[in-house]
Amino acid sequence: MAPKKGDVTEEERQLLSVICKGTIQEAGILLGSKDVRVNFLDEHGMTPLMHAAYKGKLDMCKLLLQHGADVNCNEHEHGYTALMFAGLSGKKEIAWLMLEAGADPDVVNSVGRTAAQMAAFVGQHDCVTVINNFFPREKLDYYTKPQGLNKEPKLPAKLAGPLHKIITTTNLHPVKIVFLLKENPLLMEAGALKKCSTVLDLICEKCMKQKEMNEVLAMKMHYLSCVLQKCSGFLQNEEDKLDDFIKNLLKGRDPDCFPVFQEKFVRECIRKFPYPEATLLQQLVRSIAPVDVGSDPTSFSVLTQAITGQVGFIDAEFCTTCGEKGASKRCSVCKLVLYCDQTCQKLHWFTHKKVCKILKEKREKQDLEDAKEKKRQEKLKAKEQIKPDDQASQTDEESASPFSQSATEENKETKEASLPTVENADETCRSPTASESEE
């Protein structure tokens, strides 16, 4: 029998309080009580898991899930689920936890919004990225088993884990994907990458042909497949283990260090999408086609926005080498280019050194102009502050005596009588002419 809204015991109310302000130990003790149901509903239809997700309590969420919390319960008065509350809280770790526990990202609330749409509505773009990039491991494991008359699986079981990590990455920068490949020796073989690429193409096809078409996921799978195919080609022909591919992706043209090869590569990946009728493809083409190579927006930024759901790259710092968010290391010379760490800086130095000094000079010139503008603004502000003070003091002097007005007028008449006219003043000030001095 399903629990009724508001039918809550005293111990269950205590659990809600502990979720908000208590400890894991206290919650564990209460969940062990026979008077506490893990999926009870408060008066608004919220379960303890929903409360924990909304409060951003990751450990509480884990504990509740271990005790059998229903991750897809939507008895909330507005049809919210725990994943929706995780999106509203902005905690991407909790959103990921809910998805791994089986949360359905396609469920809609009473106004027809999914969890990703709700997170986007309140500006929690990191959660949008996590939800849009999630792919259940079970769906990938399907390809590790022989299907139909095939005796061999499409994907060796040992490759499922490493490939799943690539599929669920939220950083689609091609250099970052190469980094993920180099982390796992199992993927550093041309044959293994070809098998992974084939599986990605199959997933892409399935996303486009299923009843509820998923163009976003299909485009991501296609893009990843293109990157793996390119890496496979380099591994077949080169002995440098993808180092040449990384250099090609990072190499910038001389005037501004713009990575032309990377831009053209991403554009080619998009162009090769095998479903030309797809709405997403047409949107990408309309956004990228009119833009010259080297101008904004780049094809990578457009593609990332379409797949992850992020609105541009506002209020975030990204590594110049691998595109990782939250880069905090700056080039010590120009102080304009950002990196994750020294490894990324060293990889990028071969091309950055060509423009580093030029960027430094531009920065110093800009800093000087900004300093001048700041001083000018301060002077204007100071003048604006002085003027009201002068007017106030003048008003105070005039109003100091009841006879001030008449006294002022008398003084004015006296001065007018004693001072020379303009002509007299000119005569007094000018030097005599030659004829006058002779006379």
UniProtKB/TrEMBL annotation:
Keywords, ordered alphabetically: ANK repeat, Cell projection, Cilium, Metal-binding, Repeat, Zinc, Zinc-finger
Predominant location: other
Occurrences of domain MYND-type (ranges): 319-356
Biased composition (Polar residues): 430-439
Location(s), subcellular: Cell projection, Cilium
Stretches with biased composition (Basic and acidic residues): 367-390
Highest taxon above the source species: Eukaryota
Molecular functions (GO terms): zinc ion binding
SUPFAM superfamilies: Ankyrin repeat, HIT/MYND zinc finger-like
Keyword Zinc-finger: yes
Repeat (ANK) residue spans along the chain: 44-76, 78-110
GO cellular component: cilium
Region: Disordered, residue numbers: 367-439
Record has Cytoplasm as a keyword: no
Biological role stated in the UniProt entry: May be involved in the trafficking of signaling proteins to the cilia.
Protein name: Ankyrin repeat and MYND domain-containing protein 2
Organism: Hymenochirus boettgeri (Congo dwarf clawed frog)
Lineage: Eukaryota, Metazoa, Chordata, Craniata, Vertebrata
